[in-house]
Amino acid sequence: MVTFQKWKLRNNITLKKRITISILLLYLQKKDMIESVKNRRSIRKYKQQDVDPNLLNDLLSTASRVSTIGNMQVYSVVVTRDAEMKAKLAPAHFNQPMVKRAPVVLTFCADFNRFTKWCEFRNAKPGYANFLSFMNAATDALLYTQNFCTLAEEEGLGICYLGTVIYNPQQIIETLHLPNLVFPIATITLGYPDECPAQPDRLPIEAIVHEERYCDYTSEMIDKLYAFKESLPENKQFIAENNKETLAQVFTDVRYKKNDNEFMSDNFFKALKQQGFIE
């Protein structure tokens, strides 16, 4: 016969085991996520395998637990699966092949339209047609985007961030019928990876972190921080292919030229005006 004391002791041991196992599982999950982030890479080739809508919705819903400014959640996402719609979006992204080939294309937007209408329908006077509100909404949208990407990669999905979304915002606005106070901020292609590309290089942590106050960079520090990047064979090949002297010149003279930046900046501000964020 099991006495109450013996039952209590046995139950306590079982409870301790459960707690220990739970803590161990949480630790392993944390380590798995850290390793996943460390090993992440952009995926541009995808299997022709559909992304389950329930999984996608769960990821989008879970991602919304991210921090937002004032808990306003001034962001939205347009999910594009239809091949015809992806074809319409492709020119805005310089016709990069993954836009058409990825099972899903996600356009994350700064969105003060929904919040403004909520205010108006509740007898409140909104004042969000300004650049500060755009910055707040853009921050929310980018935080939500990154949270989604991390969760998606944990589920075995691959993503590629397309910086072209802010190069050609007007085309995206027109294609997706974005209303006033909605602006595209990030586009992500999504699907199951059909490649495992090499990881791109990253600057050492000393290049990024400043203790207590910003410490400006000397010529010697720049030499040290960029030494690895400049030593890579693929980067030396970029220099040779573009007939340049340094890798920095590939960026300034070929990839991200001043004239292009100024032209696209002008387009960007025109689009901001068109969407009501600036006068």
In a nutshell, what does this entry contain?
This protein is α+β, with helices and mostly antiparallel strands. The chain has helices spanning 4-38, 53-63, 83-89, 97-101, 113-121, 131-154, 169-176, 219-225, 227-231, 233-241, 247-255, 258-274, and strands at 75-80, 104-111, 158-162, 182-191.
Structural notes for this entry:
This protein has 279 residues and is an alpha+beta fold. The chain folds into 3 domains: 39 residues; 145 residues, 3-Layer(aba) Sandwich (NADH Oxidase), CATH 3.40.109; 64 residues, no CATH class. 52% of the residues lie in helices and 10% in strands. It has a 4-stranded antiparallel β-sheet. α2 packs across α6. The longest helix is centred in the N-terminal third of the chain and has 35 residues. The model has no long low-confidence stretch (mean pLDDT 91).
